[in-house]
């Protein structure tokens, strides 16, 4: 089984990282569209154009199953991608909303994500379809903070406190009783501990990367992972392979090797 | 005189803002390559490709003089741009270094900029050619903080203190006696007051947008601005014109009207 994983950058490697132990005998090809990132601040038309060419690239390289590990592309371009390729496509929003439904008792959930993901209200819609009420909050500084490497850093704690207290105030104003927080961006799992410390302990934090890997394994009928850990991973990037290797290793949790530069135009 | 001003986004509007009172009777066309921003984190090859197509677009629209208001493109792609178009091209690095030379008595200067600008050492080279010793510091969080609108904000003050105290420590370690700080990114003029408060009062802060406008006016032989303030400005963006208008007005200091969407491919 050859699984294609796509993200605008290295963040989707948190999804690949979660897939590896669940399906260790699959073959993975990963594309980071680093020449055109970030998607999070761009328009739907532009994101759809970038995401479909990226998905087509992975399909052309033999991917039999596509995981859209980019929240923004999942939110804004999933239908476009499904029309552009003939293989099954799973996005992180649906699987994140599925995990929120399993987690929440109060049916009130919070989602933090990029500007574009929040503006699309894709999480709200996916949650509504599952009988949940979601409130979304854009946290545009978290990606640059993660990329700066300021993980366990006072500034990051302060920024998280500001964003999360504003979010909690919004839920209170709306009379909500949230018990679940979805990390709706692939960079956020690196801040999971800091986020868990910044919210009341009654709140369950859902990592959409983990949720997606679970969803993909379920969809492909994988129950118990084989002992085999010889997964083959190939990496492609549309910009500097050196930077992809360097930043990517932090997200994958292991060294990223053999990155190939590809030109998708533009 | 039709002057083309190019930036990866809205930041270059600080340069246009500085040009307007100096050359109020010129006609301006501004291109923000917002579909492909930010350039600051990308590779030289990618930046050169994006910047030359952008410059060619402005030349094709009749620009008789090009101002590269993007520090990253000025640092990494000025020669490529000059080869790609037949009109005169001025970048922000040279004019910033000229202003630093006029300002500095100790010949030791500091520059803050994006990752890519710093990695190129374009400011160091331009300063060295002018008999100055420059030390450069990448401040990747400042652009997202400005775009979040956190201008006079405790987090921004804290981030500035961290970056600038690291920079001052580096100058001390090198036995430098800096008296000048160049703002080597078009977003930074919005933080000028905060930056001036965070450095010793003996340090002169050079705004590369102002420096560039002065340099362009000098190059074009404009001495005293005419009373005329009827400058015509046309704006083009490669992504959401609505977002360009909204964010851009903050940088231009006046409403941005008539933004036209253009497709440069990619």
From TrEMBL, chains A, B:
Protein's GO biological process: cell wall organization; peptidoglycan biosynthetic process; regulation of cell shape
DNA-binding keyword on record: no
Active site: residue positions: 70, 185
Keywords: Cell shape, Cell wall biogenesis/degradation, Isomerase, Peptidoglycan synthesis
Pfam families (UniProt xref): Asp_Glu_race (PF01177)
Enzyme Commission code(s) on record: 5.1.1.3
Biological pathway: Cell wall biogenesis; peptidoglycan biosynthesis
GO terms assigned for molecular function: glutamate racemase activity
Protein's recorded name: Glutamate racemase
Organism: Acidipila rosea
Gene, per the UniProt record: murI
